[in-house]
Amino acid sequence: MGVISFISTVPSMLAIAPLSAPTTPSLASSRCPIHAGTIRCKIEVHNAIEDQLGRRDILKLFGATIGMEILASSGSFVQDANAADLIERRQRSEFQSSIKGTLYTAIKGNPDVVPCILTLALNDAMTYDKATKSGGPNGSIRFSSEISRPENKELSAALNLIEEAKKEIDSYSKGGPISFADLIQFAAQSAIKSTFLASAIRKCGGNEEKGSLLYSAYGSNGQWGLFDRQFGRSDAQEPDPEGRIPQWEKASVQEMKDKFKAIGLGPRQLAVMSAFLGPDQTATETLLATDPDVAPWVMKYQRSRETVSQTDYEVDLITALTKLSSLGQQINYEAYTYPVRKVDFSKLKL
Question: Plant heme peroxidase family profile domain: which residues (predicted)?
Fold first, then answer.
C-alpha cells in the first residue's frame, strides 16, 4: 500500500526535471567514424522506439524500479514483524498448554464438579444481550452478588475450583494474570473433554489405557482450533444485570428455547448442550424430548453417543460452545505475550 502512494508522486518529481534529449547519435559519432547514411538509419530507429515508448511508459518503468527498491529495503521490517508474530503465537500456545494441564489435573481430581463447571460457563455467557451488546462470557459470575443469585446458587464449588486453578496459573504466567473470562470457558472445555474421555473408557470396559487410545484415535481434539484461537477475553468490572438467566431446573422447554434464541442459538444447540443445563443429563433430555422442535435433535445426539466415535455429538457440542464462549467479546490476540530479552552476542565469551 505504501509503495503505491510513493510511486504516485513520481510524475510530479519528473515534471521538475524533464527528460533530456537522447544523446546516443552524438556519442556514436564521436567514438567511431560512421557514414551519414548509417547515422540516419540509427536515428530513425531511435525515434521509432521513442514513438512506441512514450513518457507515460517511461514513468511506469521508473516507478516500478523505485517500487522494487522500496520492497527490497522493507524486507527486513517484514521479516522482523513475522518473527515477532511467531514469537507471540508460540508464547500464547505454550501458556495455553500449561493452562490446560493445570485444569486437567484439577478436574480429574474433582470429577463430581464437572456438571457445575459446564453450567458456570453457560451462565456466565448467557447474560449476553444482543440489543445492548452487554454481558456475555466476561467473568462477571465471579462477583459474589452474581454467583449468589438463584440460578447460580449451586455453582460455588465450580468457582472455587477455578479460583484455585487461577492462583497456580498466575504463578507461572509470564504475560500477566489470566482473566476469569478466559479461564471459565477453558475450564468448560477441559470438563467436556473429560466427559468425552470417560465415555471412551466406558466403551473399552473401563480400561483407561484402551479408552485413551480410542479417544486419541477417534476423538474430536482436532475440532477445537477456533475455540483455542479465541484466547484473550476481558474481565467485566461489575456484575451483569439480573434477570437474564433462567433457573434451568425450573424452566420449561419453551423458556429454554426462547433464551437460546435470544442469543442466536436454536433447538439444535439446546439439545446438544443438555449436559450444561443441570447435573442429570438423562433427566434434562427426557424433558427436552417432550418438545417437537427439540426432540429430533435429542434423539440424534443420543444415537451418536452410542457409537464408537460419537462424532456428531462431539463436533456439534464443540461448535456450540465455541459460539457461546465468544458472544460479545473483543478478543485480544496479543494477550499473555511478553517481551523477549535480547541477547548481545558481542559480549559472549567463546
Answer: 102-274
